[in-house]
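Exercise 3.2. Students should predict the tertiary structure of the chain below and write it as structure tokens, then compare their answer with the key that follows.

Predict this chain's 3D structure.
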Amino acid sequence: MNSAPDPKQIDSLAAANVVIGGSQTNIIDGQRIALPTLDEVAVYLARVRARYGRWADESSEDLFVETRALPMRLAPFSPQPAEQQPRAVELLTAVAHEPRVFILGEPGAGKSAALERLAWVTASNGLQQIAQGQHERVTVPVLARLADYRGEEDLMPLLRRSLNESGPWQLGDSSVRLLLWAKNLQWVLLLDGLNELDQRHRRDGRRAVRAHRADYGDHWVRISCRTADFDAEQEKHAELQLLPQAGMWTVQELTDEIRHWDAEGESDVRDYLRFHLGDARGRRLYEHLHGDERLKSMARIPLMLWMFRTTAEANTGAETNREGDAVLPGNRGELLQSFVRSERVLGRVHQDDRATAARCLEETGWAMQQAGALQIDIDTLYDALDAGRGRREAGLDTLAGHLKASGLLVEETPERYRLLHQLIQEYAAAAHLVRTGTAAAEIPRLARDEWWRECCIAALWLDKALHTPAYLLQIMGDGDVDLRVRVAAATILGEIGDPRFAGQLYAYSYGGARHEVEAIEPQTVAIPGGTATLGGEDPEASDDEKPACTVPLMAFELAVYPVTNAEFDRFIQAKGYDDPSLWTLGGRAWLQGQSTLDPETEQYYRQLYRYLAEDIEGFIADLKATQAPTEAEIDYWRRIPADFSEDEFIAAYAGQILGEQRREPFYWHDSRFNQLTQPVVGVNWYEAMAYAAWLARVTGRRWRLPTEPEWEWAARRNSRRYPWSDDWESRRCNWRGSGFNQPNPAGVYPQGVTPDGLHDLAGNVYEWTVSLYRDYPYDPADGREATDQDGIRILRGGSWYTDRTTVRCAYRCWLVPGGRNIYTGFRLARSSL
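Answer key:
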């Protein structure tokens, strides 16, 4: 019996010759290799189209889940969101002309659905081409789950299994290899779940994808991946790139731009609920979701919205409201639990076997997580079922049948199974940890591996025994624990009461009256006095960091953390915005919308306008050097010199910034920025100064903003380039390359703490200082620390939104005192005496 032909020989001979439907005989290495006919290719396309037809609606260009109501939109991938959201386009438009594409998204965002939609469309196009006699380049999709990759030398076995699953054939590897060279077929490879590669085969899997791209360069490729598992930095290195010059797109959340059910405007969430639940029940669920910022945010993720709807339809929650609707959970772990236990899922199992089926699900998820795989063979499945049934005599086939009937267990082949979604697997493993009482011990160990990230987050939410400050602070303080797990711990800590930000009642006298108010005084670190060196030579230094200069400083104290939303909320509750005695003169005018631009600020913006008018492309290049502007932001800047004269620009800026009347931070109601333990953002210099004055009055201590030299001295102490050392390490702070895309709760970067114990000095949020922006050398006697005049003020520390250059200790940034944005907060200081 002859051995299979050499793959290299097939590749070398096939490229110029193979045509599906041609008359040539494919004999390689003495063997005839059979190829499908064009009619068989058409049968394959028809089966693919039928298999994924549920994702399409003939009358619409949108993607529909369960035949209706969840459109699929993508936007260009950016390391962080911008103040203006990137322009989103429909899925097919986004990828229509790009041969290589990454499709990224959060868990449950619809990445797999996007590829299935593309499979449906591509197969439909191919069938139309064949029907119309256009046989020169028929488009053919092949959708393969990377979870099915088994460590082979190349992708051929993976693609063979996928082709044979839908085709009227049983092709061997040699036939598939030859088929992929066919000149009259345009192959579209849809590789789902880069993050789902079996943990044992991750490196080999990436190598196989790179090799396939190199060998078959004319194949179109779309790869999906969770955003948190996508290494954008790695894709910049040629030797590591999976898809050179690939387009990078992010699945967008569903739209929900309305304030209430009957409002005019766009809302995918409302459309979906109205279609599936009707107007009355849909309205009640929508209003329930909008009553909680966390629920509202989760509902914009397609899988989460589906689970909310399924749970609400079931009416089997542990708790119901007056209308009889299930009370929905407020976090992902509990939502997954409610979904799994609902009537539509495990509720289908007979009550006598329901608890056993739940344990079997948990054991199955645990076994799959431990194996590092998203599939399980039948022997391992039955071992998990056996462990789950305990002392019950239920048959293993019966238990497997229960899980299949619930929809949670999916039979891929008679020998291989998977769970409904990776999130279900992660939830099941988390529920196992909680049920066995091992979560407390296992989370610190497991959470060091990104494979266990979502499982550990779910376990943190589900196991109420872990909701203690001591345990959550332990997780937050472990730098080896995955960042998102640390953030989840901080979020839970904020909800149960973070002892770092505990309120206290203060009684004080002011204006001839006695007052009592709750406030939070920050923890501080004592910073010794000395001679601070500011700026100096550095390969990345800006001109305004030079020349190096020295400033003598007295000892002072600096807050361990930037001011959080929990702290600033006390100022709002105490009506600090309504007490003009707390505000500077410029701040009072800003509060009333009566101020005008001070001469220095006006001059700055006139110079900015002239720069835009004279060299807009140079400005955009500078912007890209430190930020990641979206196309919408770039268009905004380009329109300024085209649409405004210089005087019109100044007037428009003054009206926008100074004409507002504000009684809270700008992003106070935005769920991305308003968690209790996040640093407050959307506050200008006036607000920061007023808060410091309020806290000083309430407590009787001289709280204030730090000066620029104090800030740099605390961060740098003359010898450090970064607050931790001279060496850059991306995991030590929240910057634009960290991938978290918003401010993190205070104190979740233990690796970035200064030797004195100061958190978040690098990244997370820029911090206002009291100092006016002036050139070096720094002279504190020249009026730059005056608080009774307006002018551009110094920001320090970089942010989650900016690049690593900005988080250097010596980096200087500035902003007009009325400026408010998504990346600026503040930290308090006080004199030691």
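Discussion points: The CA atoms of residues 144 and 512 lie 76 Å apart. The radius of gyration is 30 Å.
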